[in-house]
Write a structure and sequence with these properties.
By secondary structure, the protein is α+β, with helices and mostly antiparallel strands. Helix content is 22%, strand content 23%. The chain has a six-stranded antiparallel sheet, with no helix packed on it. A hairpin with a 2-residue loop joins strand 3 (101-103) and strand 4 (106-110). It is elongated and about 100 Å long. The relative contact order is 0.10.
């Protein structure tokens, strides 16, 4: 009876497969197949449409053979001494954005082979060198953006919002209230300052914003791309970002009178001591 029922189910499934396929499979097949109207049985089976699977691993040497998106169940082989520890497996083979479960030496998670490395000075140098090359290619594309201006070698300004024509300008005689955001290359906010007051003469020597601020007015919003190769020591950012361009989004919120710095009064000159009589 069970055998007959399974055969009936299999036949029904086969009939559906021969008749057609789901929308996503059909659209994908049409994208890659020259015969767009080919029946389902002539279309290429796509790996991403596989059934959900569970990958049992009882020897850490076999971890890399699981497939992305499958459920990983890992239990170290007690008969082998060199088995990956749970933390190493999580770091190397688990999608940490999804739930994972640890029970003693056993682990269940969604399999995802991760890029891993040891954080040491040698790798830091390699990461910075790689970032510099990535940054060079990145800025070559940035330089082609419509409306972008290169104020100096390695210093680009992209207007995002323009101030009114009669808006006050940034000069050496004013203080500027800013909202600034440090961005990653994919333009996510890394860190920010929401109410920063600066003056041009308060900038450190070599600060590229000494060239940017005099071009701005109250109400301007710009994105500034700064080449690490030209300005390597401007800010102390995360080691993983060293070598990449500094990307700042600057909103000129207000321009105010420059604070008057009171100079301390000079100390009075002490009176000379009276000469001693003989």
């Amino acid at each position: 009876m069970t055998f007959t029922k399974c055969n009936a189910l299999a036949l029904a499934a086969l009939t559906v497969a021969l008749a057609g396929c789901n929308d996503s499979t059909a659209s994908n097949a049409r994208a890659v197949s020259p015969a767009a109207n080919a029946p389902a049985y002539k279309q290429i089976s796509l790996l991403q449409d596989r059934l959900p699977a569970t990958c049992f691993v009882r020897d850490s040497e076999n971890l890399a053979f699981c497939m992305p998106g499958d459920t990983l169940i890992y239990e170290p082989n007690p008969e082998k001494e060199e088995q990956a520890k749970i933390n190493d497996v999580i770091g190397g083979y688990c999608d940490v954005s999804k739930p994972l479960h640890v029970n003693g030496e056993s682990l269940i998670c969604s399999f995802h082979q991760n890029r891993t490395y040891n954080a040491n000075p040698v790798n830091q140098q390699a990461i910075v060198a790689s970032n510099i090359q990535v940054g060079r290619d990145y800025l070559a594309q940035v330089a082609q953006y419509e409306g972008i201006k290169e104020l100096a070698p390695g210093l680009y300004v992209l207007p995002l919002k323009s101030a009114a024509k009669d808006a006050p300008s940034v000069t050496a005689d004013v203080a500027v209230q800013l909202e600034t955001k440090l961005l990653t290359p994919d333009l996510r906010v890394h860190s920010y300052m929401l109410d920063d007051m600066v003056t041009l003469d308060g900038l450190a020597p070599g600060n590229p914003f000494a060239q940017v601020f005099p071009t701005l007015k109250k109400g301007d919003v710009v994105r500034v791309y700064i080449d690490f190769a030209h300005y390597p020591n401007v800010w102390n950012v995360d080691s993983s970002l060293q070598g990449l361009p500094y990307i700042w989004e600057v909103n000129v919120m207000d321009i105010r009178d420059k604070p008057v710095v009171q100079q301390p009064a000079p100390a009075p000159t002490p009176a000379p001591a009276p000469a001693e009589g003989r």
